[in-house]
Amino acid sequence: MRAQLEREVRGHQEAARADLRWLISDSTPLVTALYSVELFDDASLLPEALAHQRGYDLTLLLEADLPWVADGIQRDGPAVRAGFHARLVATLHAHRVAYVPVGGDEGERLAGALAAARQAYNLRTR
Known about the structure:
Strand content: under 5%
Number of domains: 1
Oligomer: single chain
Distance between the termini: 33 Å
């Protein structure tokens, strides 16, 4: 999780140098913290990860509505994916972290993500 946080800081610095306002991360420290809970029964990373998650302008949560495909690294199958997704949603709800669900096929996901990003950008620049 520390390495992930450091990469994010570097990403923000690089974006600022390029006069870019947004940094998009494929995953967040919260996901890493929840894997630590799931794999090692260790919740010690959760407080910092939740605090960090609250600092994002927008959190998109991809639904688990597409067929499962092995990625070679994590997620041992559809049941594990569904269980982890449920844990993530429950954690976001329990800690009142706002998110926008994004589901459907590739085109629907892209449209949903872009609409949410536009709305977040418009709210931020008012």
